[in-house]
Design brief:
Layout (H helix, E strand, L loop, with lengths): L13 E5 L3 H12 L3 E5 L11 E4 L2 E4 L5 E2 L6 H9 L5 E4 L3 E4 L5 E4 L3 H11 L4 H18 L10 H10 L24 H15 L8 H8 L6 E4 L4 H13 L3 E3 L4 E8 L2 E6 L4 E4 L1 E4 L3 H8 L5 H9 L5 E10 L10 E5 L11 E6 L12 E10 L2 H8 L3 H22 L3 H4 E7 L1 H8 L27 E3 L9 H27 L1
Parallel strand pairs: 1-2, 1-14, 2-10, 7-16, 14-20
Antiparallel strand pairs: 3-4, 5-9, 6-9, 7-8, 11-12, 12-13, 15-18, 15-19, 16-17, 17-18
């Protein structure tokens, strides 16, 4: 069954999407459904970008993200599935993950509300007032996200849409718009604050003292909103969207790296690839970072975009070990996901907090028989890796890489005793590695920290019919956040194209 239909006026808009990440593919599918002629250009040999899955010696490794949310009724992936009439290859996970504290205790992130309440009261009995505030704000945040919410607003139409999204309950969030998650915490328990920081670092790319209260509360609520295994690896989400696009008349072309976007030809653009393609487009969606977009535009980059890029600070990178593990050497009944905090008195990241994801034992396509695929990662600053890589001492880069690998394996042993002995394959990845395979500038991951609604970045670029999608725009991180942002962009493109056709008439 095809969903494609021509828009009124007889003209079929042509849309070029740069990058087959979740954001680009989502917006591409929605615009194809609305009647656009859509082509997605991807530099790599597989889709998904930071949420892709790659193959190595019989293993399927998740390049970045390992868990996905937003599939529960009303969630962005659930809404997208209804619109496109597709089925996601996902299985709910409970618990979402287990947090291993420095003192040897564990906190299990149960999806079941009653189980989670009992767990948190056991682990942090004095923190119950915080959790009640967090849950109330998370409910408001998720309620808002279930409706069109064009933030930041850029037009009178955006303001009208925002007004329609507001409910009496929503107004309860107003006192918290300028507050952080840390402002919600009573007392100064360093272990509890380290726990919060660790959760926010993986879901919001920042810590409690900087995470906006409304956004951070929703990020902390992710396990209760439903975390899912993606059968075949998280890249299967992107592959599902690619299959839908191709089945409905869209094009997805791999090994086509875009080198230049040429604008200034009326309302259209030309997209040039390294292999010599020059494709005209009425609409261009760039599933890239602002830095990368500025490079693609070259002299056509608007002054405001250049100023924004000059002021942006690099975000986090990741150091990751891609592991092949002997399943027989692992403890029986092991949960698939673990977070380890090594020392609550030191800043997180850089091996002081790590996240371990094992492929489910029942997902036979992820690893050879008797083996498990696993990723073990930590946040890391990107600059030191590039300083060593660009320097003359290759040995120093390798020494830092090997030291980080040992640091991560030692931390993981706290969660899974004997894990190091179970390793049969170990592939290290630094920000340099990540940049090479994903084309992300400097190997940055996760998008911009959502520290304030008033500092949030919208999809506009300063050029008509050229839009950003992906984790660089509000609401930012995670496949769910990226999907929400892409749904918004697709809706704005449709509205703008309709307005333009009316003016032509």
């Amino acid at each position: 069954m095809t969903h494609r239909r021509l828009p009124s006026g007889g003209h079929t808009p042509t849309t070029i999407v740069i990058g087959a990440g979740i954001g680009g593919l989502t917006a591409a599918a929605l615009l194809l459904r609305a009647g656009h002629r859509v082509t997605v250009l991807e530099a790599h040999v597989y889709p998904g970008g930071s949420a892709g899955t790659f193959y190595h010696k019989g293993y399927r490794f998740d390049a970045g993200a390992t868990l996905a949310g937003g599939f529960a009724p009303g969630g962005p992936h659930a809404r997208l599935a209804e619109l496109l009439e597709l089925e996601w290859p996902v299985t709910p996970v409970d618990p979402a993950w287990v947090v291993h504290l420095p003192d040897g205790r564990t906190v299990t992130q149960w999806a079941d509300p009653a189980a989670w309440q009992a767990e948190r009261q056991r682990a942090f009995p004095a923190a119950e007032p915080f959790w009640r505030r967090q849950e109330r704000l998370a409910g408001i945040s998720w309620d808002i996200s279930s409706r069109p919410f064009p933030w930041p607003p850029r037009s009178p139409g955006d303001l009208l849409t925002l007004a329609a999204a507001l409910r009496p309950r929503t107004l309860g969030a107003l006192p918290y718009l300028t507050r952080t998650v840390s402002d919600l915490v009573d007392g100064n328990d360093p272990l509890f604050r380290a726990f919060l920081d660790a959760q926010l670092l993986i879901s919001a790319q920042t810590t409690a003292d900087r995470a906006g209260a409304l956004y951070g509360s929703a990020a902390l609520d992710l396990p209760r909103r439903g975390v899912n295994h993606v059968r075949g690896g998280i890249g299967a989400l992107a592959q599902t969207l690619v299959a839908w696009l191709r089945a409905n008349g869209g094009e997805v072309v791999y090994r086509q790296r875009v080198e230049r976007i040429e604008v200034g030809r009326g309302r259209g653009a030309l997209v040039h690839t390294r292999k010599g393609l020059s494709l005209p487009a009425d609409v261009v969606l760039a599933n890239v970072t602002p830095w990368a977009l500025c490079e693609l535009l070259g002299p056509d980059a608007p002054p405001r975009l250049r100023e924004d890029v000059a002021q942006l600070r690099p975000t986090w990178g990741a150091f990751t070990l891609y592991l092949g593990l002997d399943d027989a050497a692992l403890p029986p009944g092991l949960p698939d996901h673990h977070q380890v905090i090594v020392d609550a008195t030191r800043p997180l990241g850089e091996g002081n907090s790590v996240f371990l994801s094992l492929s489910p034992a029942g997902d036979a396509g992820r690893a050879p028989a008797g083996m498990r695929a696993a990723t073990l990662s930590t946040h890391t600053a990107v600059a030191p890796w590039w300083a060593l890589r660009d320097g003359a001492d290759e040995a120093a880069y390798r020494a830092r890489r090997d030291a980080y690998a040992d640091r991560l394996l030692a931390a993981a042993e706290r969660a899974v005793p004997g894990l190091r002995a179970a390793v049969r394959l170990c592939l290290p990845g630094t920000p340099v590695t990540f940049q090479y395979y994903t084309r992300r500038p400097w190997g940055m991951v996760g998008g911009f920290a959502q520290t304030s609604l008033f500092a949030a970045r919208g999809p506009q670029t300063g050029i008509d019919n050229l839009w950003l999608v992906g984790d660089s725009i509000f609401p930012g991180q995670s496949t769910a956040g990226v999907t929400l942002g892409a749904m918004r962009v697709a809706a704005e493109v449709r509205r703008k194209m309709l307005t333009q056709r009316r003016k032509v008439r």
